[in-house]
Amino acid sequence: MKKTYIFKSLSVAAVMAAAVAGSAVLTGCNDFLDQEVLGNSTDANYYDTRYKLQSALNATYDILQTDAFNNSDWRFGEALGDNVIGADEGLASHMGQLVHFRFNTSNPLILDRWKINYKGIHRANQVIANAHRVVISSNDYARYREVREILAQAKFLRAFFYFNLVKTFGGVPIRPEIETVDNLVIPRSTREECYAYIEKDLREAVIMLPNRFTGSDSGKAGAGSAAALLMKVLMYQAVPGEFSEKWEQLAEMGGYFVKGNSFTLGQMLDYPARYTDAEGNTEEWESIRKRLWFKPQELNSKSDPYEGPDTECPKLSNAYSLEYRDSYNTAITYDQQFYSHGEFCSASVFEIVFKESGDGTTGDTNEGTGIYSDFQSVESQIWADSDITQKLFESDIRKNFTIGHHETLPDLDNTEIGSGRILSLKWYIPRKDRPVYKGDSDKNRRLIRYPEVVLMYAEALNECGHGAEALEQINSNKAVVNKINNGTTLYVGGGYGYLRNQIWTERERELAFEWDRFFDIVRQGRAKECLKTFAENRSNKRGLYFREGINEVFPIPQTEIDVSNGVVTQNPGY
Amino acid sequence: MKRYIFPVIAAALALAACDDEKATQPVAVIDIDKPVLAINESMTLHFAGSADNVVVYTGDVDHDYELREQSNYGLVVNKGVMTYSYTTPGIYKVVCVATNHADAGRSLLSDTCSVFVKVIDDVTEIEKISAPQVLYDEVFATQVTDADWMLPLPRKIRYKTSTPAVSLQQKLKFYIPSVTTEITVNGELFNSNTKYNLAAPLDIVTRSNEGSVRNYRLHTLNYGEFKTFKLAGVSGKIDRTEYDYSYYEINMELPAGTDLTALVPEFTLYADNETPYIGDAVQQSGVTAVDFSSPVTYRFVTVSEADPEIKVESVCKVTVTLK
């Protein structure tokens, strides 16, 4: 009865009063929501110190350490090629369909490769787009240099991720450095435009970095890393057998990197040609310097260096060598280059740095990939067999750095891999480096090695008609290999085609099982031929379905076509 | 009692509705942007009907609708668009299966439609020709005109410390982007293991799967060089490089006191179609006087006997010193 009384006693006036009070409170809410949260970082104020910019750069390097990135690399770079057999080659799985070239445009492994590289690009863009916000504490030259080096590494990484995409998909969308909801759909740029974009990043990175980082900074990309990647990018743009400007540029870069020929900052940037727009307006040198965090000329004190177009690029020829020497300059063996002992050794140009988690946490918390643990398991993801290693190495001593079922490893351990399988010691973790927990290894992955720089140089020299010099370069690497067993076999001079085959042979032997074989044979224009030869010896005929003119690049993931409503176009043949 | 009536009626209606839940009839309609395709050319297929699920059997290996019970499978069409291409020529029946389902799949209705796609392979163009085993080297021919290719071969190659002769009987390799294109050489089907006699031009015919025919000629020319070369009674010897077949040197010593400014070289050549020049002046053995006080560069032009437009050049540098 009391309830009824209360309801009845509510008058119209009271309801009105409540409504007015309520609306007043709601209006007040608007103001309340508009208040800025004090003390929190926002994307507008986050990048105000170099430490914060460094943390954004660390996040970019972090992508390299993810399983998604490394798995994608061995799947595409090695498992698709003609030097390994995979555990998963059945047509019922996505991986099987991929390696048989019988996938469709929705294959998730293709999407994974797309996504992880764009994730890296997105993170690198955070650094690059926000570097100008950093406020430095003093006007010391070193303060500028510190920011410059962070920016340069982000440029190197961005170029690296784009290069991965371009060699996998052809021309891809170039994402704006600052992403907003208004520009989510970006059409594809051409392959040439993408390469020009990548080259610009790398050329700028070379002039902004020291030749190589050492000590506690080991692992950061230096000018050597950027120059080596630039050489590779040039090589991928050139076609074997067709003389072009790219081969010439690669030969010049090789002369600078390997022989120590003089190279100026202006030459590296191709200034002013690359900095002049269609209307003929050239960006001032000083403006480039400021953008790239060189100390502005007007603030330079007498003792500060000034980097002009004629200043020499950092010398690279003394920073690396073909000899196997660890970071203390002590001689090591060929296989030790790939173990903990050989991290940042004289022949290592860029590595992905992994750390053991210590508590067995596996996954993406920056420890190495599972393939590096396969010696201790019966099942491995990819392996070779004796036919493959025989064809690959013939009598070359580097064959000794592969190992089979229940054979004795260099540290007297036994392999546990399956019968008939052969793994590369480049993937091996010696007992003393072995992690407590499987799959939790700190073994660094070597991404670019100095022998590749020398072999790229050799290839460019041969393409430019300098056969004798090309021979000298391939033999410089072979001579170091010969020291392993006091061998005397060297490559022999000959015509263009003969030298080219020898360079490719040396490339294959030196860089075997480093997850780049598939892209290499595609670049050389002989993927069809190599995969056909491989397929003929395999009962499942893997590789026979490779379609020349189509499968050199993969389809743009179907989701990208769908969400862009066709703005992002598909590659021909898919 | 009265207040329970409405819920009971509502429940009864709901159950009756479940019983009646049936899939609606889908409509399968597809259109294809190009009914005739080249091999590996993309076609775009649009689904223009209405259905929840759309699958397309493209009609080639593994995707044949007639063999769907024998593990052939269709490809799912997302958002009404699919791109596809064929690797081998032929006529393919593209079948679209559109389905709607309801009642957790117990009610399933489908509709099919089909279109035919013709895939033709009409490649007759040769991308590259080479002699793949000139001793150890692969030597590439160059394309001179639409129909004419020229393969330059050295007479000898320097290899390590020897100079083996190069035969005019060579295997050939054709780079053609289609596997079904047939190649005939002088009327016979091309065989990659046959050594062809390159002394005379070869007539090459490519015939595509579609039936188009294209004619080519492969001319083989040797780089011109001196067979013998004598100055003031002294014979010169040819020095070759491993790397460049079109370049030779002759380095010779003459007795002290010889006047080098107007020597008349005596030389023989391998063939009549080779002519030595200095600059643009034709050189004749025993006739033309040459100043050898500094190194002299001879330019050889070898012209095809079958077609004077086809030629190859080489260079011989003669350096004379005095004892």
Topology:
The complex is a heterodimer of chains A (574) and B (323).
Chain A: H1 2-9, H2 12-34, H3 50-64, H4 67-79, E1 85-86, H5 94-99, H6 108-130, H7 141-169, H8 191-208, H9 223-237, H10 245-257, H11 265-269, H12 285-291, E2 348-352, E3 382-383, H13 386-393, E4 402-404, E5 422-424, E6 445-449, H14 450-463, H15 467-485, H16 496-510, H17 517-523, H18 527-536, H19 558-563
Antiparallel strand pairs in A: 1-3, 2-6, 4-5
Helix pairs in contact in A: 3-6, 3-7, 4-6, 6-7, 7-8, 7-9, 8-9, 9-10, 9-14, 10-14, 14-15, 14-16, 15-16
Chain B: H1 5-19, E1 30-32, E2 36-38, E3 43-47, E4 53-57, E5 75-76, E6 81-84, E7 90-102, E8 107-120, E9 128-134, E10 137-140, E11 142-143, E12 148-153, E13 169-170, E14 173-175, E15 182-185, E16 188-189, E17 196-197, E18 202-207, E19 213-222, E20 226-231, E21 234-235, E22 238-240, E23 247-254, E24 266-269, E25 274-278, E26 281-282, E27 296-303, E28 311-322
Parallel strand pairs in B: 2-8, 12-19, 23-28
Antiparallel strand pairs in B: 1-3, 3-6, 4-5, 4-7, 7-8, 9-10, 9-14, 11-12, 13-17, 15-16, 15-18, 18-19, 20-21, 20-24, 22-23, 25-26, 25-27, 27-28
